[in-house]
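User: Can you model how NAI sits in this protein?
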Amino acid sequence: MKATLKTVTKNAMASRTSQLVVPLRNRRLNFDSKWDYAPAPEESKNYVIAPRHELFIAGKFARPHSGKYFPSINPATEEKLTEIAEGDRADVDKAVKAARAAYEKVWGRMPGRERGKYLYRVARIIQEKARELAVLETIDGGKPIKESRDVDLPLVAAHFFYHAGWADKLKYAFPGKNPRPLGVAGQIIPWNFPLLMAAWKIAPALACGNTVVLKPAETTSITALRLAQIFQEADLPAGVVNIVTGAGETGAALVNHPGVDKIAFTGSTEVGKRIAQALAGTGKKLTLELGGKAANILFEDAPIDQAIEGVIAGIYFNQGHVCCAGSRLFVQEGIYGTVIRKLRDRIGTLRVGNPLDKNTDIGAINSKPQLEKIRMLVQSGVDEGAHLTQSPCALPARGYWFPPTFLTGVTMANRVAQEEIFGPVLSVMTFRTPEEAFERANNIPYGLSAGIWTDKGSKIFKMASKVRAGVVWANTYNKFDPTSPFGGYKESGFGREGGLQGLGAYCHIG
Ligand code: NAI
Ligand code: MG
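Assistant: Here's the modeled complex, given as structure tokens:
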């Protein structure tokens, strides 16, 4: 009996081993490491995505005037998730009229304390549905669940809570003044933080008594439309927020609509410039949050390991799809060799793959055109003489992927040192003195953000006052809070979002 039992156990072991052989070998090849985590995918089966998504106008979901729909795909698998309505000028016109009616009849007249109650209600429902929203954000946009769950969703709720608090206190926000709403705000947002950008724009507009027409990005509309359902659930009066989906033409129709009092745009500098031209002389208010090419400045006296972690998080997490991503690294010469060695070691451990896996650091690139742009710019860096270092990780066969990459031997004239890549690609350069560091950091058309890494408080203050960037982080990176204004200089745009300055952008203050 004993012998039989032993044989059985041995056979069972043998068959288990033979099943595991293939995946284990693949894993070794994939990650080029001797160990790996077991897969830990976030549960997503319970969240159903409707096959079709309509426009949200005057409190109801409605078919688009054109009758046309376009697909939204999962960039990690290239599978079609749903169809999104393509709004045109007629739809934009309906939405603006609904927003105007809601502004004049309801929202613009409502006491601030009542508006605040709706915003609190929305914030609480967002918290209740945070897990579902994070999963949808990850499936539709490609960002790791770690990011959507731990960064995006908490900040989305925080923005609604923060602005709910201001709704009945605007006269204290601007003492001695009489803040009044602007009217109808047209808001156009990008695909890198779909729900967070919606929150950044909608929450302050509503707190100040404005109504909204929002145009999400064409690759990531699903969570904005889920937010529309939350507005319905919160009984937000019809027309206070309207959502018209579509691509650039839909956005342009909103910009050019005469019934809009303000445009708030986040996206590329190219489109931002076009919007600024279109609005010149119209009297419409405008805030623009455009691209960036942030510098992380790493001094010899910095805690190097901590700095490397900050630099890594600042450019690789979220696939570098962050307008304030630290895409340039300036290293003081004395520590250059150490920093490069540590960077190379660390990017080798970053996990690229299934965005729904809780251990994934780098998810899918949001779209094929974005992947092509990243490839083209990295190739231009190599052609111009830069040296390429890439993680040896293998990438999934389907979907849009780019491995964590850094370029050394980059000069300030190279395209990779000047243009926004918007991918997991870092350009590394050196400096000797603080003066050289801020001159080089400032020598670009952008001025959105920067990071300073040093042990010396005096150096932090000096650099922060010299670096021309809207946000300067010291010994940390990419930290956000609704109380803190965010925005840029130069071609990174103008106006601020968040904090008092952000409120001021949605009021007449006089
Ligand atoms: P984009 O600027 O074309 O898209 C942003 C939003 O503007 C989308 O909702 C889009 O539908 C809308 N839009 C496009 N053309 C418009 C027009 N003529 N009038 C009004 N709205 C319009 O950006 P895209 O093409 O998705 O990305 C291109 C590059 O822009 C990226 O590679 C990246 O460098 C940069 N970008 C920067 C962002 C930021 O957060 N600052 C966000 C997204 C992209
Ligand atoms: Mg999509």
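A couple of observations from the model: The first strand starts at residue 52 and ends at 53. Residues 295-481 form a domain with the Aldehyde Dehydrogenase; Chain A, domain 2 fold (CATH 3.40.309.10).
User: Helpful, thanks.
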